[in-house]
Amino acid sequence: MPQGPMRGLGPRGFLTDEEKKNLPKVDKALIKRILAYLKPYRLQFVFVFAAILLSAVVGLLPSIITGKIVDEALINRDMKLLIRLLFAAFATLAVSQIIGVLETYINAWISQKIIFDMKNQMYRHLLYMPHSFFTTEKQGDIVTRMDTDISGVSTIISGTLSNVVSNAATVITTLVALFTMSWQLAIVGIIIIPLLILPTKRVGKNQWKIRSDSQAKNDEMNQHISESLSVSGSMLVKLFTREEKEYGKFKKVNSELTALNLKEQRSGSWFRVVLGMFTQVGPLLIYFAGGYLIISRTDATLTVGTITAMVALINRLYFPIQSLLNVHVEFTRSLALFTRIFEYFDMKNPITSPPDGARPDVACQDIVYDHVAFSYDPEVKILKDVNFTVPGGQMYAIVGPSGSGKSTVVNLIPRLYDVDSGAVRIGKTDVRDFDLSYLRENVGVVTQETYLFNGTIRENLLYAKEDATEEELIKACKEANIHDFISRQPDGYETMVGNRGLKLSGGEKQRLSIARVILKDPGILILDEATSALDSISENAIQNALDLLMEGRTSIVIAHRLSTILKADCILVVKDGVIAESGDHESLLAADGIYRELYETQFRQVLDMEGGGPEGTDYWDKVEEENNGF
What we know:
The structure is a single chain. By secondary structure, the protein is of the alpha/beta class. The protein has 4 domains: 13-182 and 320-348, ABC transporter type 1, transmembrane domain (ABC transporter transmembrane region fold, Up-down Bundle); 183-301, ABC transporter transmembrane region fold (Up-down Bundle), CATH 1.20.1560; 357-442 and 532-630, Rossmann fold; 446-521, Rossmann fold, CATH 3.40.50. The protein is built from 23 helices and 10 strands. The chain has a 6-stranded mixed sheet. α3 (42-74) packs antiparallel against α11 and α22 (594-610) crosses α23. Mean pLDDT is 80; it is low at 1-12 and 603-630.
C-alpha cells in the first residue's frame, strides 16, 4: 500500500516514558491467547493476506508497463501498441484498486467480528463481577477497557497487522523487480534510504514531544470545560459569580494550546519540505547512474524505459521501509492493549453460585449472623464479631454512628460481599450455599440512593418483574403512593425519567424504588434509609405501604427516623465492628449507653426546646410531628 510521508511520525512512532516503563511481558502464552481470538477467522485472514500479496504484485505492473511504453511504443512510434499498453496500465490500476477494496472489506469484517466477540465476553464478565469490583475500580477505567481498548483492537487488525504484511510484501516484490531490472541501479536507489530514515526519526521525535504536550494541554482544557459547563459546575460558577474568572482560565489554556498546535504545524511543514527533497534525490541518482551506464555504453542491455520504470518503483519503496522501522512500536502498543484487556478478563469473581445451589423456602425464616467478620481492606476490619439472629417474620432495626458498618451488615445477605469468617444463614442454609440468582430474587433491597435507568417509568418498574401486568404495576405504585403522580404526567407510565432519574425529585425516585420492590414481592426485605429522601407527608404515606410490605416478612431496616425505630421488634446498635447493644427502645435508653448517646445527640435541639426529658409527652409529640430521627 502507498504510505504517506508523515507515516511513523508523532506519538505513534515513539514509546512514551510510561509505555517504556510498563512494557508488556511477551511470552508464548500471551501470543497464543491473542491468536485464539483470530483463529475463528483464519480462512478470512488467508484471503486478506492473499489479496495483499496479489495487490503488491499487481502494483508493480504500472511501473513496468511505463518502461515498455517508453522503449517499445514511444521510441518505435507505435500508436496501437501505446494504446494497448495504456489500457493495460489502466486495467492493472483498476484491478489493484478492486483488490484493495476487497481486502479492506474483509479486514473490516474480521476486526468488527473480533470486537463483537470481545465486547460480548467483556460485558458478560463485568456483569458477574462482585460489587467490590465496582466500588474499587474507577468507572472511567471500566468504560475505557470496555469501549476504547477493545475498539482499539480494530486498529491492530485492520491497521497494524495488515500494514506490516502489506509493507513487507511491497518491499520484497519491489526489491525483486528492481534487482531483476538492474542490480547496479537498484543499489544506487536504496543508498538514499538512510538519508530518509535519520531525519525522519529526529524530526519525528521532536514532533512527538510537541504533540504529547499538546495532548496534555488539550486534556486540561477539556477538563475545565466539563467541570465549568456541567449542570452542577455551571450552577457553582453562577452562585459565586466566577464567570470572568473561569473565562480567563479557559482563555489562558486555549492560548497555550493554540501556540503548541502552531508549533507542531510549523515543524511538520518544514519537515515535509526536507523529506520531499530527499525523496527526489533517489530518482535523480538513478537518472544519473543510468544515464552514465547508457552514455558510456557500460551496460548495453539498459534502456531508457528500464530507467523510467525503476524511478517509478524506487518511489514505491521508501515509505513502506520507513513504516516497517516502527513495527516494534506498533507491536508493543498492540500487546499492551491486549494486556490491558486481559487484565480484566483475568480478574476472578469470588462470589459465584455453587454447583447445584440450594433453593430453600426463605419465607419467615430466621436470619442468623454467626460470629461474622468482614473487611474491605485486610488491614482494617469493618465487622469483627457480629453475632445476632433476626427471628422469621420480625423486623429488626440497625442504628449506629456513620461509618460503623450498618450497610455492610445487610449487604452480606444478598452476597454483595462474602464474609471473611463466620457465616450468614437464612434458616439453616448458609447464604454461600444458595443458588445465587435464587437468593437475590428473594431478597428485596431499597437503598438511600435510588438508581433509575434512562428509560420510562414502566421500564424501570418492569426491571423487578418483566411479566408484570398493568394491574400489578398500578397496585404497586398505589401502595408506594406514586400512582397519582404518574397519572398526572402527559405520558403516564411511558414518562421518561432521564439520566439516573434526574427528571424526578428525590422523593419521587424513592417511591418508584419502593414500588419496584413491592412488585418484586421478595421473601426478605432490607431497607437502607428507605424513606430518608421523603418529606413528612410522603414519608407517613409510604410508611404504611412499607408496613404492609414487611408484614409476614423477615426484615432488616437501617433506621434513621424515630418512627421506624419505634416499630422495630428489636434494635441493634452497631459500633466498632460489633453489635454493641440490642433491645427495644426503652431498654436501650435505660441502659444509658451508645444508643442513648446517639439519641440525645440527634434530638438535643428539640429536647432543649421542650425542656423535658426523653420520656416527656411533649417531647414525643414533637418527635412524631417532625418525624425526624437518626
